[in-house]
Amino acid sequence: MRTSSKLKTSLRAALALYAVAMASANATDTTDDYPQQPAIVNYTTSEAGNPFVDGWYADPDTAIYQGVYWVFPTSSYVYDQQTYLDAFSSPDLVHWTKHANILTTKDVTWATKAVWAPAPAFRNGKYFIYFGANDIQEGEPEQGFIGGIGVAVADNPQGPYVDALGKPLIGAYNNSAQPIDQDVFIDDDGQAYIYYGGHGHANVAKLKEDMISFDTFEDGTTFKEITPRDYAEGPQILKRNGKYYLMWSEGGWTGPDYQVSYAVADSPLGPFLGVSGTTILQQDSAVAKGSGHNGVIHVPGTDIYYIVYHRRPLSENAGEHRVLCYDRMYFNEDGSIKPIKMLVKDHFTDGDMVGWKVYPEGSEPEGAHVVDNKLEVKSRSKSGTIVALDTNFTDQLYDATVILSNSSNDFGTSAGLVFGVKNVPSVPYKTKGYYAGLSTAGRVFIMNLGDGTSTLVEGVDIKPDIEHHIRVSAIGANISVFVDDLTWPRLTLDGSNHAAGMNGVAVFNMEAKFGNVSIAEAS
């Protein structure tokens, strides 16, 4: 279960909607992939929080149309319910607009089981979506079963898309590659390629100018195998500084070991066959598991890249329970890609709290929601309210801002950060973990939530309705709490018993607002 507040109407959100509307209005007026320069967004991660949209989604691919960033994912449910595709657009990678049902199985007469892994492309004033459908297995096409990779076309990025062929574009196994998980790439010379393949095999083929039929290679073949070593599925091609980067997913898509690797070549055709890849994205026991099947956003005219991918929250075990995330992708001087670090941040400027969960369960929306780019938490009793992320950090640096709403000398009235939290029950103060709290009575304290013992310091200048910066450094046996002045801790504690657990915020018998949350593994 995840809770989220309603998107707050704001000037920035209005601008986001306006940008998308303008993109739709102008969609058929140009044949240029980038008729408008998108906003140059220079983030370290999705700093308004990952997942960046609500809902179960997977297999994202990306595009930039009329200066707007687009993400096209799979709706991640069991196959019988996976009958439609949604899309998301944003002018700034913070404020996202959902475009529901851009393509459904009702629009594709031969798609009866499921559609997934959409890949966008644009050419000659038309928008294309390539998709997998029906999950055909080897030998089934010969038995009359229909399925594979289809293609649909529209006049606008958000559709509606209609089936372009009335049949699969690729409806059979070639070189043992299951026809799924396609990526479409148009090179600088105008040649379009489609990369695809499941069941451990990958192919590439050349698309003609119409984008719905194939050209042949010089040797007369249509499909060339390019399978790298340990390849499972999900190819993605990227061109940078004249080099071609083939990314792919390894491992099983339902397991925690799903990961992304890549290899580099001087040609869009490789050689990639048999090449061992370098792993750049994999599970992090503190953040998420099952991270893979990626797309890439390149901000045109810059060297800013983002890897967009799906992952599974730590507490989720269902294979379909996947969410959309992105993090910054950096390159070394030699052109190699640095390993991706899944960062945890949320400055709430999207007006939402996707990924946060309220305890006691059922407290939201009264217990917690986003107001004016702050997570506002209300607790009317000393038993408290905890709002937590599905994380599992041990050694960490945990930062946030907090505004306490009222002045009180009551020791039971406070707000602050919780960390190392395990098994939150219906009564938050009886959980295990630590709480670094602030009180307008001038107290800063660390409480062991497991036994209720506290260490405190008094006489600290903590005013109501003023934003205070709080940091927790929990490294080894040392737990330190900093307030405003990050040079010297207000207090320290022997935390030799502190263990891995969730991170969050807590409020006891008052209201408080939190912002600029950042949690990093301490090295």
Molecular structure report:
The strands form seven sheets. Strands 21, 23, 24, 26, 31, 32, 33 and 35 form an eight-stranded antiparallel sheet that branches. A seven-stranded antiparallel sheet has the order 22-25-34-27-28-29-30, with no helix packed on it. The longest helix is centred in the first third of the chain and has 15 residues. It starts with 10 loop residues before the first helix and ends with a strand. β1 and β2 form a beta hairpin. With 523 residues, the protein is mainly beta. It has two domains: 323 residues, Tachylectin-2, Chain A; 166 residues, Exo-inulinase, domain 1 (Jelly Rolls), CATH 2.60.120.560. It contains one helix and 35 strands. The N terminus is likely disordered.
Keywords:
single chain; 523 residues; mainly beta; Tachylectin-2, Chain A; Jelly Rolls; 2 domains; eight-stranded antiparallel sheet; seven-stranded antiparallel sheet; 3% helix; 44% strand; elongated; disordered N terminus; signal; glycosidase; Glyco_hydro_43; Glycosyl_Hydrlase_43_Enz; carbohydrate metabolism
What's the SSE blueprint?
Elements: H1 11-25, E1 57-65, E2 68-75, E3 84-90, E4 97-104, E5 115-123, E6 126-133, E7 148-154, E8 162-163, E9 183-186, E10 192-196, E11 203-207, E12 214-215, E13 224-225, E14 233-240, E15 243-250, E16 259-265, E17 278-281, E18 288-298, E19 305-313, E20 323-329, E21 344-346, E22 356-359, E23 368-371, E24 374-378, E25 385-393, E26 396-404, E27 414-422, E28 432-439, E29 443-448, E30 454-457, E31 467-475, E32 478-483, E33 491-494, E34 501-508, E35 511-521
Antiparallel strand pairs: 1-2, 2-3, 3-4, 5-6, 6-7, 7-8, 9-10, 10-11, 11-12, 11-13, 14-15, 15-16, 16-17, 18-19, 19-20, 21-35, 22-25, 23-24, 24-35, 25-34, 26-31, 26-35, 27-28, 27-34, 28-29, 29-30, 31-32, 32-33
